[in-house]
TrEMBL record:
InterPro entries: AMP-bd_C, AMP-bd_C_sf, AMP-binding_CS, AMP-dep_synth/lig_dom, ANL_N_sf. The keyword Nucleotide-binding does not apply. This is Long-chain fatty acid--CoA ligase. Transmembrane segments: none annotated. SUPFAM superfamilies: Acetyl-CoA synthetase-like (SSF56801). Belongs to the ATP-dependent AMP-binding enzyme family.
């Protein structure tokens, strides 16, 4: 991680970032981040792991502020530009931050918190005033960043990573996905999350490559950038691929041909942060000739497993452990399970986080006695590659003595001609423990749930067929596009 800054010096005038229709070199990034660090330090010599929060859209300025916090010895806490004020307040209170650096668009939005929390809202521009003081020496085991879990099942927890953790997360991906200095990537992912910060931005900057920011997703603009021919890699969440497919479907034949040809020339396209429905993978492959590379990761570990860059990318699977990552698949007693047997993923290695911020009990519960991180994700080894069956708490339904993967049922349901999307959950039931319930986004008003159940019986065993259905125009999702299953369960309570 500290090597990140040393490497940047060797890339000099190469373009590091494209932001707001302007290019910035590595030298400019170094100079700007040094100014930020100096202004943060003021009269002190080291921030000594002080938490510095910042609410800045994806941009050159975002990157320079994050680097500046690190260089000054602080812990960077990026905030989500899409979150409401109570969510922002939760992070500020939890980290006990004394300062939030704000882009001009968010200064008035944050002002109410100044009096309430005694926090300083500092305009972003003040951080870039010319200043050049000596910066502290940092050890790799210093805390560097706090990212918050998506909170799909409980209150978000602050995941603390050190400089060494972050460097391990970056280098594993650079090696596995063969990043080079001539690479060019578009970043359309939220920058309060490991996917956008590590997989896209930091891997590019480690490699001497260029990261272009698009602060807000726009399907037409993304296709325009793909068609420009400047990209070599593209990474997104399944929802984005779904939207890009819809845009392609609506285009005329000439435009379709142009888009398909441009997409086919990228060297790598990746999908992550949520399970990629197999029909979306297959449709994207038919459009672009690209088999999306799926990988598996968490805020706590960075990326853990990945399908092969050069070898097989099997739909519905997440491949094998990345370099330096150790993984085991175990039962409830932490005994290893065999091939085609479901078990929990447990991870070890230098990329695994240090702790949950000020939650020693939660940190202790997150690890086994012999130091394995307990992911809570259930999967299996299937013919040499791993696949995810779901999260133990939300995607594994325990009904009538069976452990049933909600993701498997969803994959089958999405193959139905009248279903655009769906989410499957388990609802409490006195007789069965849980019953399977499906929330459906229909693509055709003629969808009949009795006929759907009959069709599903030709695809799945009887015990995996939903007992309850509701139809909805859009599934509840968080800012990363992940379906929030607890919100789905609430929908059944109101029906």
């Amino acid at each position: 991680m500290l090597t990140l800054f040393e490497r940047a010096k060797t890339f000099g005038e190469r373009k590091a970032i494209s932001s707001n229709n302007q290019g910035y070199s590595y030298d400019q990034l170094i100079a700007s981040s040094n100014a930020v660090a100096s202004n943060l330090l003021g009269n002190s010599t080291d921030l000594n792991e002080g938490r510095i929060t910042f609410l800045v859209p994806p941009s050159f300025e975002y990157t320079a502020i994050q680097w500046g916090i690190w260089k000054a010895g602080g812990i960077a806490v990026p905030l989500c530009v899409l979150h409401p004020l109570p969510s922002i307040q939760y992070v500020l209170e939890d980290t006990q931050a004394e300062m939030v650096i704000a882009h001009k668009d968010y200064v008035s939005f944050l002002k109410p918190l100044e009096a309430e929390l005694g926090i300083s809202v500092v305009p972003m521009e003040a951080m870039f005033a010319e200043n050049n003081s000596s910066l502290p020496n940092l050890s790799p085991d210093r805390r560097a960043m706090i990212l918050y879990t998506s909170g799909t099942t409980s209150k978000p927890k602050g995941v603390v990573t050190t400089h060494a953790n972050i460097e391990a997360q970056i280098t594993a991906l650079v090696e596995a996905w063969e990043w080079e200095k001539d690479d060019y990537i578009l970043n359309i992912l939220p920058l309060h999350h490991v996917h956008g910060i590590i997989n896209v931005m930091s891997c590019a900057l480690w490699s001497g490559a260029c990261c272009e920011f698009l602060p807000k997703f726009n399907d037409e603009k993304v296709w325009e950038i793909i068609c420009s021919g400047r990209l070599t890699l593209f990474m997104a969440v399944p929802t984005i691929y779904y939207k890009l497919i819809a845009f392609w479907d609506d285009a005329n034949e000439e435009e379709k041909k142009k888009m398909s040809e441009a997409a086919s020339k990228l060297r790598l396209m990746v999908s992550g942060s949520a399970a990629l429905p197999v029909p979306v993978l297959e449709k994207w492959r038919s459009i672009s000739g690209q088999t999306l590379l799926e990988r598996y990761g968490m805020t706590e570990i960075g990326m853990g497993l990945s399908n092969s860059y050069r070898g097989e990318r099997r739909p519905g699977h997440v491949g094998l452990p990345l370099p330096t990552v150790e993984m085991r698949l175990v039962d409830a007693d932490n005994n290893s399970v065999g091939e085609n047997e479901p078990g929990e993923f447990q991870i070890k290695g230098p990329s695994v986080f240090k702790e949950y911020w000020q939650k020693p009990d939660a940190t202790e519960k997150a690890f086994t006695e012999d130091g394995w991180f307990i992911t809570g994700d259930i999967g299996m080894l299937n013919d040499g590659l791993y696949k995810i069956l779901g999260r133990d708490s939300v995607d594994i339904i325990k009904s009538g003595g069976y452990k049933i993967s909600a993701l498997e049922i969803e994959d089958v349901m999405r193959k139905h001609d009248f279903i655009s999307d769906c989410a499957v959950v388990g609802l409490p039931d006195e007789e069965w423990g849980e019953v399977i319930a499906a929330c459906i986004v229909p693509s055709n008003e003629g969808l009949n749930t009795e006929e759907l159940s009959a069709w599903l019986k030709t695809q799945l065993p009887g015990y995996k067929i939903p007992r309850k259905y509701i139809k909805i125009s859009e599934l509840p999702r968080n800012v990363l596009g992940k379906v929030t299953k607890n919100e789905v369960k609430k929908l059944f309570e109101t029906k």
